[in-house]
Every structure is written in C-alpha cells, then in structure tokens.
Amino acid sequence: MLFSTLCIITPGLLYVLPRCPTAIPVVNNTPAAYNTSNSWRALQYCKAAYCPVDTVMNWSCGDACSNATADFHIFNIYENASTSNMGFSGMDHMAEKIVVVFRGTANTANWIQDLDFWAMPYPSVACGDLCTVHRGFYKAYSSIREQVMEDVQTMHARYPTYGLFVTGHSLGGAIAVLCAIELATWHLPWSIQLPESNVSAGATGAIASAKSNPAHLMPVELYTFGEPRVGNVYFTNWSTSILSQERQFRVTHAQDPVPHLPPRSWGYVHVPQEHWYPADDSVYVQCVDSGDAEDPACSNSVYATTVSDHLLYLSTCTRCTCDQETMDEIHNYTLSPDIKTILGLEYLIDNPQPNDVEAG
C-alpha cells in the first residue's frame, strides 16, 4: 500500500479523548490465546485473496491455497467494480470453521480509499452518536457487506456447530474488523431465519439448543495483518467490549507504516489486541493495549517507514506468490517525504525525543 498524499495534522486534535460508556459484553466462549498456527493459516488465506479470482474459486492458487488448508470449499467470491474490493468465503471442514477473507490494497482504486482519512458516523445505535469510523474503509465494507452477511447466515444454517474465522491484510484487515464486529453483535445463531429446507440434517436441534442457551453463541475469531486504524476511541471502546469475549488478534510487523495510519492526531485508535513481530522471525510481543490506548512499547515504539515490512509477514510475502519479481517490487517501495513527516509526528507521541526521528 502506498501513500502519496499529505494529510494536514490539526493541532487541536492532539488530545486524549475520554472513555465512552462501556457496552454490555457479548456472552461467548472463553477467549483463546494467540495461536501461531492459526495466524499462519490466516495469512495464507490473505495471500490467496491476492491470487487470480478463477484460481481462488477452484482453490487452485498454489502454495497460498494448499498452505491454508487442503479441505476448503469456496462458497462465494465478492467483488465490487466501483471500489475494486475483493474477498471470499467458504468452509474449512478440517478446522470446522466458516471463513471470511478480505483482500488488501491491490490497485490504485484501493489506495485512494486508504488515502482518505476522513471519518463518518458509525451507523450503529448500540455504539452511540459519538462513534465514528474511517469513511473509505466503511464504504469499502458496505460495497460487499450485504452478500457477505447473507452467505454467512446460509453457511451457518448448514453448519451450526462451526465457528467463524475472519481475516484480512492491509485494507482487508480494516474491512475484517468491521465484519467481525457486526457478526459478533448478531449473537449467532439467534439471527437465523432461514426456511427449514435450507438447514442440514441435525442442524434444527442444534439451533434450537443454542437459542435456549446464550452460552452457545458462535465464536468469532479475527486475525488481521498490517491493519490500519478503523475508528475513534468511542468506536474502539465499544468494539472492544463487543469483542472482549471473542478471539481478536491484530498482527503487526517491525516498521510497517500502515498500522500507524490514519494518524492518532486525527482521533483514530486501534482495536486490541496487538501482537508485534519486531523482526522477520517467530519471536513476537503480546502487547498491552485497551479500547482507548495503544501499547507504546510495541510497534508504536519505532519510527515505522519501511513499506516492505507491510508486505512481508511471518517471514513470507503477503502477495499470491513470492517470486523474484514480486520481491524486487516489494523492496523497491518507498514513502513520500510528506507521509514520513506524518509518521514522525506519530512516533513522537510515544517517543518524545526529536533527535531519534529523521522525518523526511
């Protein structure tokens, strides 16, 4: 993802926003610890989303498909010509998961959405009037949302014991957050209203049992890689309460600049929980963040201007294939001086030593 536009930092926005009222947490299974195997599988799904659509549809996209799972059945492909978004959904029968994947930035049209830092009200009464989200990210999500939600309901009716697994890289990570939050607020399977004929054998009883016992709500597992900030502190606090009993993991890498945009000086805050890989190896830091504060000792502790770190996660490239041409392209990406200045200001929020920053 490349940023080539200067965003004006408004001094009046550099303040600590108050905590919003805490929402009632969704009842769900006990939270799971970060799982490196699941993280690797999620990244392979993200890589697959960058592959040619026909190879994804046939699940013949090479290493990305085979490394994710051999027993994956595509349910649908999501494309929107006006926003150039792409994603897919399907069933991982080995892991017993309904999987929803969103592609990251793959062309200029997607980059433009990332460059738009303006916010809009988040259209959820439960979140409250003060909740805002990134306008471009929400527009991207909205362009394919209706079909995604319909398909998840259908898959869930057929496989009511399967969990939900949502993932995305870059812009796809932002869309994945919006999707996972909405799915968590559904209290599945309470939202299922499909005809009996659409429900697989034995599913009717399982759905009835779940409806009578709130502890049987479907778990939502969320893995994102190089995700940009999605909303303001009110949105993040509310989202944290919604996902507090879920399994959400925001993976960051070294000096990837994208997780530091849009800037906090514009009022944006990340949804927890960050897991930061400081280098290209298996060592990671489980960060201490919350709904209204990011961990200054994790990725916020570095001056993040290395674009290649955004395209290399878990020691592999995030594209469909990692041939020499792709790797050369990745390592040749650079940031504009304007964006370096913005990232330098972001760095100074947590690290107030100007002599440590070479912005420009």
From TrEMBL:
Q: Report the residue ranges that make up the Fungal lipase-type domain in this protein.
A: 99-264
Q: CDD domains from the xrefs?
A: Lipase_3
Where would one find the signal peptide in this protein? 1-18
Return one Gene Ontology term, BP aspect: lipid metabolic process
Report the SUPFAM superfamilies cross-referenced here: alpha/beta-Hydrolases
* Keyword Ligase among record annotations: no
Could you tell me the keywords of this UniProt record?
Answer: Signal
Question: A Pfam family matched by this chain, by name?
Answer: Lipase_3
| Key word Lyase present | no
UniProt xrefs under InterPro entries = AB_hydrolase_fold (IPR029058), Fungal_lipase-type (IPR002921), Sec_MonoDiacylglyc_Lipase (IPR051218)
PANTHER family given for it?
A: ALPHA/BETA-HYDROLASES SUPERFAMILY PROTEIN (PTHR45856), FUNGAL LIPASE-LIKE DOMAIN-CONTAINING PROTEIN (PTHR45856:SF25)
Q: What is this protein called?
A: Putative lipase
Query: Can you name the source organism?
Result: Leptomonas seymouri
